[in-house]
Specification:
two-stranded antiparallel sheet; 33% helix; Helicase, Ruva Protein, domain 3; alpha/beta; 2 domains; Rossmann fold; 11 helices
């Protein structure tokens, strides 16, 4: 199978069929455990399929597959070689996701372009009720950051925001040599599955602002970084949690702080 590099898209194309098969299997019923019956058969949307190395395994699974590809040459190739594949020529970041999978839930997968991977996951958050399963490959350090928990040096904004709505698993690492062109870094494969949370119990904009403000000054204690949001005289400023730095807090801690910020504005 022909594989071509499109450096302007920030993408490195997978050439190893065994790795491609392993990635495709991450959303198979056999690997979704208790969620197999619920999500094992939902449609699949692949981002950036390129020449279809991963796509062929998704199509062979028998599920409804939509490939979102920005490059017109790849779109032409995929449409010709995989006639049962639904190919959408578009920029995923600008795409209205209601146009995909007939408005149904779908599993998202891909060899995500490194330069926009974080933006893709922020869009996943905005569409979490449509996307119960996310899997795929991205730069290893980004995948590790997304899947990290409290106490980790790489735990950050995206880690917290995703953990609020998804269970995050780092599955395996992939060396540079299986790509064309080879990237200068290792890659990592992850899987996110929607948790049971339906509400944060606080305004989501306030929650996001608390998380972003906290990690925006991650070397400071929360008492210093959040003074502007809570107010210096707010009783919550004396809470022991405010002596900590943001990497020590879990999702519930940030929700509690967001509730205090909301109360201060009433």
């Amino acid at each position: 199978m022909q594989v071509r590099a499109k450096k302007n898209l920030g993408q490195h194309f997978l050439t190893d069929l065994n790795i491609a098969a392993r990635i495709a299997a991450t959303i198979s019923p056999s690997q979704l455990g208790a969620h197999a019956g619920e999500w094992g058969g939902i449609p699949v949307v692949e981002i950036g399929p390129g020449m279809g190395v991963l796509t062929r395994f998704l199509v062979d699974s028998g599920r409804e597959v939509t490939a979102v590809e920005l490059d017109s040459e790849s779109v032409e190739y995929l449409s010709r070689e995989m006639p049962t594949l639904n190919v959408v020529e578009a920029d995923f970041l600008k795409l209205d996701l209601d146009s995909l999978a007939d408005g149904k839930e779908f599993a998202l997968i891909g060899n995500y372009p490194y330069n926009i991977s974080s933006q893709i996951f922020f869009k996943v958050l905005d569409n979490r009720d449509r996307i119960p399963v996310v899997a795929g490959m991205l730069q290893k350090e980004v995948a590790e950051r997304i899947c990290s928990g409290p106490g980790s040096k790489v735990y950050g904004i995206l880690s917290v925001l995703l953990r609020a709505w998804y269970e995050c698993e780092y599955l395996f690492s992939v060396p540079p040599g299986v790509f064309a062109p080879p990237p200068k870094v290792m890659s990592g494969v992850l899987r996110l599955t929607r948790n049971s949370r339906t509400t944060l119990g606080v305004d989501e904009k306030v929650f996001k602002n608390v998380v972003k403000t906290s990690f925006g000054q991650r070397r400071k204690t929360l008492r210093n970084s959040l003074r502007g949001l809570l107010g210096a005289d707010n009783p919550f400023m004396s809470d022991p949690i405010m002596e900590l730095r943001p990497e020590r807090l879990d999702v519930e801690d940030f929700i509690r702080i967001a509730a205090a910020v909301e109360s201060s504005r009433q």
